[in-house]
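Structure first, sequence second, as always.
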């Protein structure tokens, strides 16, 4: 009975009478905590490019850049595998060199994680989506200035003569095909920037070059989400069933510089973390 009471009161129980297991247990606990943080950071980031199109739709009265169906594709499709794959990420080499975690300050989700995910990486991702949106609209005759305040006429099913920047008239059906094509492109742009997001979420402080790309669950997840996005865009019949329209090849390209920017930006942030431990960057961005 006494041993049962001591087990209930203990923070850790050794099952093999080997004190070296304490180190292994601490390392495993830190790894689980780290990987949960990484998965949450990855998942939260795409919320900004998902929410901002609706804010712009309401505030600027532009045609809707991203639809609800494509948001479901992201949350229930393309993001699932990469988010889960971060649970398979190996421990960073400095994991046992860190000071013990302060449970009152270093929580699973803190203001620094929100700041990085929403205020930094998420903003770059949203910029990628809107850039692709405006590129496609401009290629079809609607310059950005023309889109401002056009929503009322654009969504009016009885209005068949919305003019673009060059005076060409667009019927309701044609406008909606263009709008749904933009939904597909915005969706694809999020998938592309999420490539970089899942790679930067592999580590909290170390460079990805140090960590390596040996997590093949993650690598396969990147391939999977890309193939799924292509399947959704190019499968015949889905344009009618789910309003997902095929894209020209070069409409996949505008988001690539933003994906590279995300990777370079976070590599620079983590370099500053290592270069100046305890500095301003660590206090404000190390989650």
């Amino acid at each position: 009975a006494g041993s049962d009471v001591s087990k209930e009161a203990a923070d850790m129980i050794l099952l093999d009478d080997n004190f070296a297991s304490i180190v292994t247990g601490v390392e495993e606990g830190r790894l689980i905590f780290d990987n949960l943080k990484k998965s949450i950071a990855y998942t939260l980031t795409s919320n900004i490019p998902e929410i901002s199109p609706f804010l712009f739709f309401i505030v600027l009265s532009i045609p809707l850049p991203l639809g609800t169906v494509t948001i479901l594709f992201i949350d229930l499709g393309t993001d699932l595998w990469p988010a889960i794959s971060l649970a398979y990420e190996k421990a960073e080499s400095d994991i046992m060199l860190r000071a013990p975690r302060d449970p009152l300050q270093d929580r699973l989700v803190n203001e620094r994680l929100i700041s990085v995910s929403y205020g930094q990486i998420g903003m770059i991702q949203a910029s990628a989506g809107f850039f692709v949106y405006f590129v496609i609209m401009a290629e079809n005759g609607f310059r950005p200035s023309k889109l401002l305040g056009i929503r009322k006429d654009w969504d009016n099913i009885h209005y068949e003569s919305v003019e673009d920047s060059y005076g060409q008239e667009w019927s309701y059906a044609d406008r909606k095909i263009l709008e749904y094509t933009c939904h597909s492109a915005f969706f694809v742009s999020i998938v592309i920037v999420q490539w970089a997001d899942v790679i930067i979420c592999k580590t909290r402080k170390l460079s990805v070059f140090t960590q390596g790309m040996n997590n093949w669950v993650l690598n396969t997840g990147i391939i999977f989400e890309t193939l799924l996005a292509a399947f959704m865009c190019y499968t015949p019949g889905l344009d009618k069933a789910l309003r997902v329209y095929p894209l020209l090849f070069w409409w996949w390209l505008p988001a690539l510089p933003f994906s590279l920017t995300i990777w370079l930006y976070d590599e620079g942030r983590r370099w500053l973390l290592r270069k100046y431990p305890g500095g301003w960057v660590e206090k404000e961005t190390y989650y």
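Margin note: The radius of gyration is 23 Å.
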